[in-house]
Amino acid sequence: MTQTVHKFGGSSLSSAQRYERVASIILEHTQPGDCVVVSAAGKTTDTLVKLWQSYQQQDTHVVADILLQLNNHQTDLITQLLHADLKRTALRLLHSELTAISELIKNQGLREAPLLAHGEVWSARLLALYLTQLNINACDLDARTLFTLNNGQLLHTQNAQQCAKFITPGCINVVTGFIASNTLGDTVTLGRNGSDYSATLLANYCHAKQVCIWTDTQGVYSTDPRKVSKAVKYNKVCRGQANLLARLGNPVLHAKTLSPLRNSDIKLSVRSSFDVQATPTDIVKEGNVKQKRFITTLNNIDLLTVEKLAEGEVADVSQLIQHSIHHFSQNGETYLVVPSASTYKVVSFFEGRANISESSLNGCAVVAPVNDISKLNVLAIDTLNAHAIEPRFIHQDSGYILLLTDQVIDSDILSVLHDKLINKGQEVALIIAGLGNVGEVFIEQLSAQFERFSDDFTIKLVGLIRSETLLFNPSGINIADWKTHFLSESKAYNNQTLLNIISELDYEHKVVVDITASEAFSQLYPEFVALDCHLISANKYAGTADTAWYKALRTSISERNLHWRYNTSVGAGLPVNFALADLQNSGDKITRIEGVFSGTLSWLCSKFDGTIPFSDLVLEAQKMGFTEPDPREDLSGRDMQRKLLILARELGLELDLDDISLSALMPETLAIGSWDDFLANESTLNDFIDAHAANAKAQSSVLRYTGLLEITENKVTAQVGITYTPIGDALANLTPGDNIFVINSKWYSANALVIQGPGAGTEVTAAGIHSDLYWLVQNIK
Ligand SMILES: NC(=O)C1=CN([C@@H]2O[C@H](COP(=O)(O)OP(=O)(O)OC[C@H]3O[C@@H](n4cnc5c(N)ncnc54)[C@H](O)[C@@H]3O)[C@@H](O)[C@H]2O)C=CC1
Ligand SMILES: N[C@@H](CC=O)C(=O)O
């Protein structure tokens, strides 16, 4: 039984490497009985169209060149992918087909549709053979045996029977897209983008559960991401809006594709075959998802008026020109939006009932929730006018606006329109993990921050996570009484539940704020990123994970145009990372960073004068919210080692934790056992500290815990540890709890740049996380 119909377009099959990738997707995402619909590889259909045109023009040289080009391309794919007998079979079949084409050309018997069909036949056969070679049970299937049309109308009952007969339940059925036959057995094509249509038809006939369109983009965006870098990918789009988009110029969706799904529960997803981990866009039934805002562009179109338009005529003429035509009524007239290249055919179709009202138009369409349309119309016209564009024809309807202009809407103007019309409607979902000392204060400061963002975005707190329980409300948690809600409504969860919930969130932007100190939670970052979440971390584990993992995370964040902020992981609220980035972006080169990077150790060392046992001070620091959940993470130097590594990576150094030498501010034996064991042995700690303090004093110094990162031409020194700092030194005279970063660089060589201030504490850390959130919002808006 067919569960899923997958469809791969030409760009996903344009080289042997891409076939390999498609095969690995099939291996992972299909089960026996599933269908894989394929288009012609790469630009094969275009090449076949050129062959047809050259044949019609009797240009024998060009015909010969194109035949050679087709032969070379297919032969290359076959020889790179197949071995032994399979290769010989494929080459023999290709050779006989190309010979047959040459014969038809010679005898003037070539016909367009069967010629174009070769593209899909070749790719289906090659993919099926390649899967067979990989020991995957696969067969190729020519859709001309499945789909029959009579006078352009699909014979649904017969086609469903043919599908039941020919689709093999025990194997992966690789089906040619784009082609069908008529009742005489001749080849007919389903029009450009017909393979998507083949996939949804097939799903309908086979009662599949879903259709997955694998393409070269990551899904459906608010506008063309090739033209507007800040285009937003939507994870869910309702069918009504998808239909409108398809008729109004969206390059990913096609109206025909959606029609077989109209009265079914079949799910349609658009996924990237280049980035399999990326979240797809799901096209879902009306009412299951909020309506979004989109802008499409239209180029080179004519506006036709038509008299007495009868039901079904738009579908028929769309079929004739193989392009979905949009139509609407205004002031008693019925208009058709037609590509200029097809106007002649359309006018002929209506036999005197159609007239050209406006010709050679460009412009754009804004698709948006019904309630937003009127205000967006005014805003769009104002924006175009501000760029000296006066729309020649405007139509406002339920759910969209059509603005037709003389000028092409280029990417600059499209970007401005996108900024003004799309951004304001966007929502940001905030998920906060870690409701401890810092987390609580961060949430308390949140309402005031949301007010400040209200001009840009609507931000909603949708998730609150503790180690074992989770409170989730996709419509937004009331911040004023979040604690009461958390106590009464939070539920136990596991990682998979959390990821499922996040993937279901229907927001334009998602931000996970990690205020835990949990390594396990940080290990979920790659999965959050795969779900298109931005990240903000106070937690230091991800930033100090091993180099390979860290680099892979960074790569997928940048590939998805996401952001990761972690300013508070070093220096709490102090703008250390900002300063380093700024200096480096403006051409400076950092050579040395020295200082005290732990608020806890700064406070402990500055406070300690021998009158109060050191272990009591540790407990006091813990109570003030300075320390890590287990203060031994601070005393061991590990926490400061992490901070130094984060700084080093900010400078582009490829280091791991173990590359930073460390001496602990406690005896090694105390690292073993529980926190209670530690407390039971507090005298060992106190003796250790007393001894160091006495040694320091003997050298007219004080006990401090410092870090150093020094970069010379051929050496990197990275260390954290105990130092005896001379009494007059700046590092010896810090306010308890302060951090100090003494930065030397090309520009600050003799006289260092110094950043100093509180390096721990709930208020300053929470404020630092808010600063990251502010930065993030500014950069996604
Ligand atoms: N306290 C400070 O001054 C500063 C803290 N930080 C960092 O902020 C983070 C939080 O610090 P605090 O609030 O002081 O710690 P905390 O121990 O008070 O809070 C941590 C919270 O995270 C929760 N948690 C632990 N594992 C979790 C998991 N797997 N999923 C969800 N929640 C989990 C705990 O239940 C706890 O509520 C730490 O990573 C710390 O290094 C950074 C700069 C300064
Ligand atoms: N334990 C840390 C808290 C922030 O990271 C410190 O004191 O520096």
TrEMBL record:
The keyword Electron transport does not apply. The keyword Amino-acid biosynthesis applies. It holds the Pfam family Homoserine_dh. It comes from the Bacteria. Keywords: Amino-acid biosynthesis, ATP-binding, Kinase, Methionine biosynthesis, NADP, Nucleotide-binding, Oxidoreductase, Threonine biosynthesis, Transferase. Pathway: Amino-acid biosynthesis; L-threonine biosynthesis; L-threonine from L-aspartate: step 1/5; Amino-acid biosynthesis; L-threonine biosynthesis; L-threonine from L-aspartate: step 3/5; Amino-acid biosynthesis; L-lysine biosynthesis via DAP pathway; (S)-tetrahydrodipicolinate from L-aspartate: step 1/4; Amino-acid biosynthesis; L-methionine biosynthesis via de novo pathway; L-homoserine from L-aspartate: step 1/3. Its EC number is 2.7.2.4, 1.1.1.3. Residues 4-271 form the Aspartate/glutamate/uridylate kinase domain. InterPro entries: AceGlu_kinase-like_sf, AK-HD, Asp/Glu/Uridylate_kinase, Asp/hSer_DH_NAD-bd, AsparK_Bifunc_asparK/hSer_DH, Aspartate_kinase_CS, Bifunc_Aspkin/hSer_DH, HDH_cat. Transmembrane segments: none annotated. In the N-terminal section; belongs to the aspartokinase family. This is Bifunctional aspartokinase/homoserine dehydrogenase. It comes from Pseudoalteromonas marina. The gene is metL.
